[in-house]
Each structure stands twice: as structure tokens, then as C-alpha cells.
């Protein structure tokens, strides 16, 4: 309704009333203060006239009575004026029910009684309601607004029905909406019941069957808000999977489950899903037993007075991991390191020593096995008269593969000299005088399928071993002979179902002897590393190959190697047997489809990571702070002596040495209360901190440049860890988890830890 109104006073209201000026108003018009126009009449008296100003205002008609009535215009204040009044009628509109809504389902043979919520506006009241399109057996009563009756049995065949609900006003203006009415049970969610889902556990299989009832099949399901590792299988209508490590940190989850039937009717429920941490490793009831070495085994022998370094292959089953190993009965001068599983030192006496090897599990249970170690006495060579058939200087090796190197064979550069030995050479004889002249340079010997580069420090070491007055009749013998097939097989060891070892080329035994007159002195350790290059014959996957030190009885030790132009290059500290091996480690619980299989295989081949048993890796198990520290210490080859400074790290524990080494290198710093918490699960922000510190250790403490990823949960990253998380992200050492999150307080799995160390070693 629009009115043109004005006032000579302070404004006010004009009301409209039906049949009586005292009846309740059905409309109120608010009159604003209007402006006036003043005119001066050109008369003798110059009279002033004010013209009243009018304003157009709108007012709503609240409850106009139906029919024909007398309308009274009532001025509720003085000096109000109304110039015109125009009433505009609005169209009829249905507010309830909404168009496209679903009516409660009806069931054949069961009485139906449903009151409709009917509400209209606009037009001219009153409204008359009607409903059409109902199934046989149902009818609508306009007086009560109810649909009642009993649906016939055959009505289900045409379900769902489109029902038209119409409102007609007093002027016969009609408007309609459409609703659906399904025949059958009302759609509902039957499983999970009561809006609750079972709790889940990190690392444990989880399954919840979804089920609906009523409505019109088939059903369509959607589920949102699930933690990482769980998903809806539309085929089986199950929520299933294994909650990923760290998902307990964001528990509980608000999971929304929605089902929609073929009539487009939907029902929805919201359930709270709690994810708890994985259970601690069950110690089980299996008796602790040592699998390797077997009882009565002989450890690789050594020599009295000579440096000894032997890695033991120690394997146990049963009990509760981790195991702590010890070896008793060693001769004076030798010690066993439980962190590296190596016997090292210089034996001070000879003989066969009975050893007791002990494994202790986390529950303090022990198992032992007897072994032995033979140390040969210091060898005193018998007198041998001078050789009567000296080696003839020639450019070809003799029948035994020996060749005397002359100055004419050297290619000399600014920093070193190179000798390319002819085919068939097995021993290079270096005259003492030649070494004396070249002691400030490196010397490279190139032979069939291999090369040796003696750095200047080693050349000087060898020259110093020869008295100055004996240089002319002394020589250094560098031997590199391939052992026979039987010896090679024994040195390499046999493959197993879990570990396939393939020899690529020959097993080469390297020796270095200083010969001065009748005295032969073997040189087994060097003042600086020697560069060894071995050709890789037919290696299928270079990432799984490398140079290995073969200590005997199948004991293999990987030497850090680089694959360059079909060969492996490594730095070695002593001479012995070496070979190129391709090692494929197969873990039963790491299938080919696992996201980290390539990384785990490569690190296992290089002896950087090991399984939790001969055949298992447990990629999804949470890694502890001690385990991750040991992994980093081994990958970085930390060797400096560390000091033990944590109250909860026992001196004899298997993790004591790697923790001490990592602390000395500045990679770990403990909890802040004097403890390290070795058995605690390492969080992702702790891992980021340690891996970045390890990167800085490798690269001279240089911080990385670049900007890391922006994580949605950055506000949950501790202030002390934030710069390390950013640097780890920018370096590509760590990445976030799903939905742009980093999950800083989430725990780390063994597979994730392996990937992070692999990323570190690629930088």
C-alpha cells in the first residue's frame, strides 16, 4: 500500500480501520515531517502563503478482513493530511511445505495419518488448500490439513509419488508446490546404531558396516571427516582401512554419514570417531632364542698384535624386542660394541677363546649361545735366502701375474701419477726408489676391472717404512688377486628367501707388503683412505649394489659406494677381500605396492636399515626416539667418542652409544629435564628437528635457503620446532600429510623414518 501524506505539525500515524473508527487497525501509515514551500502574494498587504509538502510512504496491510467493508481513515495526531492512497495486492506464495520436500513414507496395509504444515502469504486471505497425486487409499482433508487413509498393496509399484499441494486465495489465485511420497518404510540409517561408531586404533584393521532401512532402494552413501587411512568402500558399503600413524593426535573425528535412496530422500547422522594410539609391542609367550650364530660357531679368526674388526651377524626370535647383545670371553685387547655389533681392537694374546654370546630382551629375559674365536700367534717368518731369480723389468707380467713398475710407465700430473697395468697383472711391484721420489703425490694403479688410488699420505707412509739406505733394493708389493669360485662363494655367503645376494664380478683379495731384503712386512691399515674402484658386471639395479668388505664365513660389510660410469667407487681403510654385490632384501610385510618399498630395499641393501626380524620390517610401526637416533648415527657414520649425559640412558643399553654420538654431534639434546626418553615415540616435529640438524652436520652447519610449505596446522607446531619444520620442508627432507597438514604431534612410522633418512643422504 502506498500513500501520499503530509503534516503541518510534528508528524504521526494514520490508521485504517474496518466498519468502525474504533476497530483494531489493519494498517498503519507513518507520516513523516514534510517540507513547506512559502509564497508571497502580490497584494496591498503582501500576504505570505505556505504550501504544504507531501511525501510518498509505503505501509503493509497486516490482517485486512475478507469481504466488503467500510474503511475509516483515522488521523492519530493533529495537522495530518492524506492526498492519495493506492493498494497493491502481492501474489500468493506457499511458505510451507517447501517445494521438492519429501513427505513421510507410507506403508501398504498400515493406517497413514499425517498433518501437513501449511502456510501461505500474499494474495487475499483466506486460503483454500488441496492435495492431488496421492496414491490409492489416501485422501486429503482441507479442514484439518491431514492426509489419512490406508495405502493399497499395489501402490508400491508406482512409488515414489509426486504429490501436488496447492493454495487458492479469496480471489481464486492458485499456487502449487510438489512433494514426494514414497511407499514403504521411512528411510533411516540402521548401522551404525544410535549415532555412534566403534573406536579405532592406529595400525589396527578397522571395519564398520553401513546399513539403511526403508525408503526406496538402491541406496547411495557418502562419508566425510574420516582420519587418514580409513575410507568408504561404495561396493561393500563399509568404512574400512588401517588408521595411519599420528591420526590419534587429532582424535576425535566428527564423521558425517549420509544415505540417499532412489527417490532422492536423504538421511544423515554425525558420529564421533575416537582413534587411540597403537598398542605397545606384545612381549608374547614365545621363548627368547638365538638363531644366529648357531651353537659352536667359530668367529672369523684374527692375528695376535694385528688390528681386528669384525661385524657379527646376530639374530634372535621370541621375547620382546629390542634385544641387547653382549659377548664375554674375548681375549685382552678386543671389545664388543652392542650398538654396532662389532668386535674391534688388537688382540694381545693368541689361542682359541671360548665365547658366550648373550641376547637380552626388553623384559630382561636372556638367551645364550657358545662360540669360539681363534687368534693366531705373531708370525715370525723363517729365514729365506735372497731371491736368485729377480723379476726382469718388462712391460708384461710374468706367469704369476707380477709386474715391476718403472718410471717410464708413469703418467705424471701436478698432484699424482697413474700407472695403467697390462692385462693379466695381479701384483704390482713398486721399487722403493720410485716411492721415495713420489711421496708427495698420489699414485693410481689401473688394472683389469679395477683401480687403486694411493693418496700422497699413504705413499709417504710406505716410503717411510723403508730405511733410507735400503730404497734401492726394497719394493712394495700391491696384490689384487681374484679368489677361486669356492672361496668366493664362502666369502660372499649364501642367499636366503629373505636376502638374495648376487656377486657382480670377482671377489678380489687385496694385500700390501713392504719387502726390504729378507723382511716382509704386511701393511693392513693406512694413514688415509685408499680409493678403490671396481667394475660392476651386470648389476640389474645399481641402487641395490655396492662394494662390500668380506670378512669371511659369509660376513658382509657394506662400504659407502658411488655408482659412476658402470663401476662403484669407495674409500677403504684397510686391505682384505672386496667385491661388488647386488643385495635384494625381501620383507614379507613390505609388498611391491608399498609406497616406501624402493627406499626400504635400497637402505637395507646398504645396511643402513634392518628389519625387526629376518623377514619383517614393520613399516607401519611407530619408531622410537632411540631407534631413530641409531638410524641417523649409522647413516651419518658417526665415530667420534660421545659422552653419556642422559639420566635414563643406561651405559650398557644397545642405544647408549648412538645417542651419545648423536648428542656429541649436536643432533639430539634430550627432553630438557636431563632425560632422553629412548623408548618414547618420536613426533614428526622432533624428527624434523633431528633430520635438519643431521643435514647441517653433513654440510658444515650451513642452514638451507628457501621457503618451506605452508601447513594448515602451523599453529600447532611448537615454537622451538617451527624453524626446523620449515627448513625440512624447503629441503625436501619431510613432507606434510593429507589436507595440507603437517601433523607436528603425530608419531612417525618406520617407513617414514626410512624415507626421511634416504632424503637426507640424497642431499
TrEMBL record:
Q: Which domain of life is it from?
A: Bacteria
- Describe the location of the SLH domain by residue ranges: 583-641, 642-705, 708-763
Single Gene Ontology MF annotation? carbohydrate binding
PANTHER family (alphabetical) = OUTER MEMBRANE PROTEIN ALPHA-RELATED
In Swiss-Prot or TrEMBL terms, this protein is called S-layer homology domain-containing protein
Task: Quote the InterPro entries the UniProt record gives.
Answer: Cadherin-like_sf, CBM6, Cell_Envelope_Struct_Comp, Ig-like_fold, SLH_dom
Query: Where is it found, in Gene Ontology cellular component terms?
Result: membrane
